[in-house]
Each structure stands twice: as structure tokens, then as C-alpha cells.
TrEMBL record:
One of its GO terms (biological process) is carbohydrate metabolic process. The lineage of its organism: Bacteria, Bacillati, Actinomycetota, Actinomycetes, Streptosporangiales. Residues 2-156 form the Spermatogenesis-associated protein 20-like TRX domain. This is Thioredoxin domain-containing protein. It comes from Microbispora cellulosiformans. It comes from the Bacteria.
Length: 675
């Protein structure tokens, strides 16, 4: 009996009609394995994963394969996005056993959950033989399998992780830039060879570092990504990664977290340089998020699939996005079709004579280009669309909240700030199950919260989003909600050595408690926590929060010289810590144009990690509002004792709560920030 029908995960629901007797992760599966005295077969993946779909079609939808799985194993299907802790501990086992990892992940484990054999994608003939061989080994060498599982658990449990060093200093950060330069592809941008992933957190660090070498690497990478096939030249938004070193052919799935991180860093590129390309890409990506990823509840869906249906009814990777010269002519006519083929490099860069659209140079006829792009986008909308994983993940929505709030403010697009606020309300109302300290649930779908506990990254990235939203809106509700989340981090996640575990101390006890300090596709929970703690300390003057942030950043000193690519967010936060970060308190009537001008001048500053507090000017210690209409009803410590000057709105530039003389004009504020 397949038991996935009651789940909220779109990935699990993709397998609800499989002939495999799937169990969701949980004690019921472990008990059944013990009762039957058979191993567990744990299959981990996610909804937008192309090779997960391939293995599902080849094996899990195949009746003979399913019978073999059902007869020999208790089969458990796991959505890695709902259970990153389960994914992390078994991925560690896969990498230890095979030297590599990926999804779908296939793990054979004892009824206690101890892995004894593992891999990733297995073609069906190989999978048949493997199922039989593992089952026979279990029957004939039970003690050997149990011993192997115990050894794997012991080895993984004995891993000490990255040792923590001192708080990074200027020399450490310069060393990280040199380490990044060693792996930089100076011809094509990015770091290393194929496949190439968008190095979002590293780009943020390079922009914050600000030296010509650092900014040059960031700009070259961001331009190459934006002009290549990684970026959707018609609809906006970035794919997961490029399969080649030239950013031409993407792995076509679009992930929420990539686009949230890249949206923010492209906006910061524009802020630092005024790049026209950066502005266009940031706004197009924000529009794509609102158009294609927003859910009816106000949150943002997790992913768009890589696969879709082609003209012949068959499903394949990238079919929604690729074009042939003939298809261009059908939509645009001969002349425009030929021009579009030249502009978009439609020369057979993908499979079966199709091409991924690129835009290696801006066209010489912008009006013609806009008309053609609009026509192609409309024609593409008539194609079968990729599937959407519409579950809401707290961590990734936190990243989106931060990005949309900042981009809306920088480009004066209130609709983006409103969208950030709606997503924040969803996380606060639906995902938060208690307050003071807060407890988060990781996921929801269709307005129904899941049951999985929030991980460190959920608390940290949601707090980051709330702090950014407060800095843009002045609604102190978000400042206080961030404080609640950070209190949970400080009480439920510390590892005793200055870092943090990725799972809470009162969560499900797996055979290992995950604690990965390095960045992957998203900031590590440890570095995300450090960033949010540092910003909160800057708004409150709290030594406790700053000390926790600085302790967590100790791992950066260890990683900077050799593995800087895996510590990008930690390096970016260290830049902020080294510079203060700068604190700006702005007080004045919220509807006053002079207040708005000071606020915008602060937000346009490139100071790494700068925080902004907004007060309404009444008694000099209020906030603009708490989200419920009670302007000035709740204090934010950075605002205390700071009022308007001679009846005019004023800005105070501070570091560690030591402030310079207040200023009353944007020009004066820009000068203070430049100093």
C-alpha cells in the first residue's frame, strides 16, 4: 500500500500512484522494517530534479521493479527540501562510501536507519541486480551488514567538521580574494569548470570587499551569467546551473533560492556601479518571481521543473525554453525570425537542433528587440508549462523577503515591498507556532502548515528577511519577530564550540546531528545565523548577539585561504563585522518627503551590512509602525534618545551605538556614509 496520499510535499505526491509501497519518513517505516526483518530502501529527491524523474519513470513506475522493491525492502520516499536534516546525514554517508553525491539519492539501511550501502541514480537493469544483491547480502551476512552500518555511523559521528579560528580580519578577507582569484575563469567568468553554479554568496562578498580585483571578478561573472543561457532571456529568472563552462546550456530547473539570492546581488551590483544590465536583470527577475512563483497565500513556490511536454507529447528537459530557427520564423516571420536567430545565438546549442537563447550583446535596435521578445514570450506561454513545486519553504521565503524588500526600495517599486510584506505575514502567521522564543515550521502548502520542524537556516534566513523588511518599512513588528527567531537560535542550536547545529536540540534524533558550516546552494545555516545576529546586534547594541555572530564567523578564518568558494556568505558577513556594520537611525514624520529622502540615501549606501532604523520623530524614540497601524508604539534601541533637529528629519550615522553628529540632508548623509 502506497502511503503518500496524505502528504503535503508535491515531490511525494508525484509518487502517490507508483506501484511501490512507499512510506513517508517516520517511525511507521522503521517499525515495519523491524517487523518484517528487512532493510530500508530510502530514496531521497526533490520535485524539480530531472534524474529523479528519470529513475521514477524507469523503476518506480515499473511493475516488476516495484514488486521486487516491495518484496525485499521497506521503501521510504523523502523530499530533501522538507527534510534537509535527513538528506544531510544520508548524503554524508553516500559521499563517504562513493566519493560523490547527488539526487536521486538511494540508500540501503538497517531497520535502525544505519546506512550500509548507498548511491545516486541507478539505471533500471543495474537497479534490478542491486536490489537482489543487497537482499541476498542481508540474508546471508546479516552481521556484516549491521557491522558495516555501525561503522558508517561511527565514522560520520566522529567527524569534527571545520575547526573554528579567530574572527576574520582584513588580511583574512584579502587572502580569500586571492584564493578566489586562483580558481577564477577570467575568460568566461565564474569559478572552476563545468558544471558551473551561480556563486551567489561569493559575489556578495566580492562586491562588499570592493577592491578593483574583487569587483572585476564579480562583474565579469554576473555579466556572463546574465547574457548566457543560464538566464531566461524571455521571461527572466535563472536556472539552477550551467552544464558547460560557458554558461550556455542550463540545467533548466528554476529554484526559488537561486533567484532570491541573485536578485539581491544584482541589485547590489547596480547600487555599486549603476550597471544598466544589473538593473534590467534585477527587475526582470523580481517580476518573474511575482508572476510565476507567487502563491495565492502570498508566499513563493519552491521551484519550476526542468522537464515539460514537447510538441510530440513526450516529456523532456528544457522543452519549454528552447527554440529552432524554424520556430522563430513561425512566430515572427522571415525577416524578424532571422534577426532573432542572430541576436539570440540560435545555432543549435542544445539537443536535436534546438538552442537555448543567449544575449551576448545588446541589440542595435532596442524597439525591435522588445517587440520580438514580447511576441516570443507570448508564443512560449502557449507551450505546456513545466510543473511547479508550490510548497512554501520558510528559509527560501526569508531570502525572497530580504531581496524583494531591498529591490523594491532601491528601484522605488512599492509593489515589490508589498509582496515581501505579504510573504512575511504568511511566515509569521502560518509557520510560527509559538512566540518568545519563536518556533517555526519549515513548510506549508495551500495554506496548510506541514509538520516538519524548522532548521537553523529557516530561523536565520527568516530573521534576515524580517530585519531587511523592517529597514525598508520601519514596521517594528518585523524587528521584534526577528528577535524572537534569533532567541530560538541562541537557545536551541548552539554546538558548544561557537558554531551551530543545523537541527534543533529537541528535534528528531537521527544517527547524526547535522552541522555543515559551509555554503552550498544557499548560505550555510551557521553563516546565515551570523549575519542575522550581527544585524540585530547593530540595531540593539546587544553584546550577546554580536558575540554569538563573531564566534560563528570563526570558521571563515579556517576556510578563507583554501576553500573561500564555500564560505562566501561568511566572508560577506565578516566584511560587515569588520566595518561595524554601519548603523543609521532616521527620525522624522513617515510621510515627509525629507524623511523619505534621508531613508533612500541610507539604503543606497554600499556600506557592507548597513542597518537602518526608522523613527517617527515623536519623542525621538519611536518606530514608524509595528505593522498594525500603531505608529511609534514600540521602541527600537538604535532610535532611543535620537530625535529631529530643529523640527527637521535627521539621520544619525553610528558604529557600535557611538554616533556622529546628526545630519538633515541627503548630501550630508551621503558624505557621512562615505567616511
Amino acid at each position: 500500500m502506497n502511503r503518500l496520499g496524505g502528504e503535503t510535499s508535491p515531490y511525494l505526491l508525484q509518487h502517490v500512484d507508483n506501484p511501490v509501497d512507499w512510506f513517508p519518513w517516520g517511525e511507521e517505516a522503521f517499525a515495519e522494517a523491524r517487523r518484517r526483518d528487512v532493510p530500508l530502501l530510502i530514496s531521497v529527491g526533490y520535485s524539480a530534479c530531472h534524474w529523479c524523474h528519470v529513475m521514477a519513470h524507469e523503476s518506480f513506475e515499473d511493475e516488476p521493479t516495484a514488486r521486487q522493491m516491495n518484496d525485499l525492502f521497506v521503501n521510504v520516499k523523502v523530499d530533501r527540501e522538507e527534510r534537509p536534516d535527513v538528506d544531510a546525514v544520508y548524503m554524508g554517508a553516500v559521499q563517504a562510501m562513493t566519493g560523490q553525491g547527488g539526487w536521486p539519492m538511494t540508500v540501503f539501511a538497517t531497520p535502525e536507519g544505519h546506512p550500509f550501502y548507498a548511491g545516486t541514480y541507478f539505471p533500471r537493469p543495474h537497479f534490478h541486480r542491486l536490489l537482489q544483491a543487497v537482499s541476498e547480502a542481508w540474508r546471508q551476512d546479516r552481521e556484516g551488514m549491521l557491522t558495516q552500518g555501525a561503522k558508517v555511523v561511527e565514522a560520520l559521528g566522529g567527524q569534527t567538521g571545520v575547526p573554528s579560528g579567530p574572527l576574520p580580519d582584513a588580511g583574512t578577507l584579502a587572502l580569500a580574494v586571492r584564493n578566489l582569484a586562483e580558481g577564477f575563469d577570467d575568460r568566461r567568468g565564474g569559478f572552476g569548470g563545468a558544471p558551473k553554479f551561480p556563486p551567489s554568496m561569493v559575489l556578495e562578498f566580492l562586491l562588499r570587499h570592493g577592491t578593483p580585483e574583487a569587483v572585476s571578478m564579480a562583474e565579469a561573472t554576473m555579466e556572463a551569467m546574465a547574457r548566457g543561457g543560464l538566464y531566461d532571456q524571455l521571461g527572466g529568472g535563472f536556472a539552477r546551473y550551467s552544464v558547460d563552462a560557458d554558461w550556455v546550456v542550463p540545467h533548466f530547473e528554476k529554484m526559488l533560492y537561486d533567484n532570491a539570492l541573485l536578485l539581491r546581488v544584482y541589485a547590489h551590483w547596480w547600487r555599486a556601479t549603476g550597471s544598466v544590465l544589473a538593473r534590467r536583470v534585477a527587475l526582470e527577475t523580481a517580476e518573474w518571481l511575482l508572476r510565476e512563483m507567487r502563491t495565492p497565500e502570498g508566499g513563493f513556490a519552491s521551484a519550476l521543473d526542468a522537464d515539460s511536454e514537447g510538441p510530440d507529447g513526450a516529456h523532456g528537459e528544457g522543452l519549454f525554453y528552447v527554440w529552432t530557427p524554424e520556430q522563430l520564423r513561425e512566430v515572427l516571420g522571415e525577416d524578424d525570425g532571422a534577426w532573432a536567430a542572430s541576436v539570440f545565438e540560435v545555432t543549435g546549442t542544445f539537443e536535436h537542433g534546438t538552442s537555448v537563447l543567449q544575449l551576448l550583446a545588446d541589440p542595435d535596435d532596442p524597439e525591435r528587440f522588445d517587440r520580438i521578445r514580447t511576441a516570443l514570450r507570448a508564443a512560449r506561454e502557449r507551450r505546456p508549462r513545466p510543473g511547479r513545486d508550490d510548497k512554501i519553504v520558510a528559509s527560501w521565503n526569508g531570502l525572497v523577503i530580504a531581496a524583494l524588500a531591498e529591490v523594491g526600495a532601491l528601484f522605488e517599486r512599492p509593489v515589490l515591498v508589498d509582496a515581501a510584506r505579504e510573504a512575511a505575514v504568511l511566515l509569521d502567521d502560518l509557520h510560527t507556532v509559538s512566540r518568545g522564543p519563536a518556533r517555526l515550521l519549515r513548510t506549508s502548502r495551500d495554506g496548510r502548515a506541514g509538520t516538519n520542524a524548522g532548521m537553523l537556516e529557516d530561523y536565520a534566513n527568516t530573521a534576515e528577511g524580517f530585519i531587511a523588511l523592517y529597514g525598508v518599512t520601519g514596521e517594528s513588528r518585523w524587528f521584534h519577530r526577528a528577535g524572537d527567531l534569533l532567541e530560538t537560535i541562541l537557545t536551541r542550536f548552539p554546538d558548544g564550540s561557537g558554531g551551530f547545529y543545523d537541527a534543533p536540540d529537541d528535534g528528531e534524533q537521527l544517527f547524526q546531528r547535522p552541522a555543515d558550516p559551509t555554503d552550498n546552494a544557499t548560505p550555510s545555516g551557521r553563516f546565515a545565523a551570523a549575519g542575522a545576529l550581527l544585524s540585530y546586534a547593530a540595531l540593539t547594541g546587544s553584546a550577546r548577539h554580536r558575540e554569538a555572530a563573531e564566534a560563528a564567523l570563526g570558521a571563515v578564518s579556517t576556510l578563507a585561504g583554501r576553500y573561500a568558494r564555500f564560505a562566501g556568505w561568511g566572508l560577506a558577513v565578516a566584511e560587515a563585522a569588520l566595518r561595524g556594520p554601519v548603523e543609521v537611525a532616521i527620525v522624522g514624520p513617515p510621510g515627509d518627503a525629507r524623511t523619505r529622502a534621508l531613508h533612500r540615501a541610507a539604503l543606497l549606501s554600499e556600506a557592507p551590512g548597513l542597518v537602518v532604523a526608522l523613527g517617527d520623530g515623536s519623542a525621538g524614540n519611536g518606530s514608524v509602525g509595528d505593522g498594525s497601524g500603531d505608529a511609534g508604539s514600540v521602541d527600537v534601541p538604535l532610535l532611543e534618545g535620537r530625535g529631529m533637529i530643529g523640527g527637521s528629519p535627521a539621520a544619525y550615522v553610528c558604529r557600535r551605538f557611538t554616533c556622529r553628529a546628526p545630519v538633515t540632508t541627503p548630501a550630508e548623509l551621503r558624505a557621512e556614509l562615505a567616511n
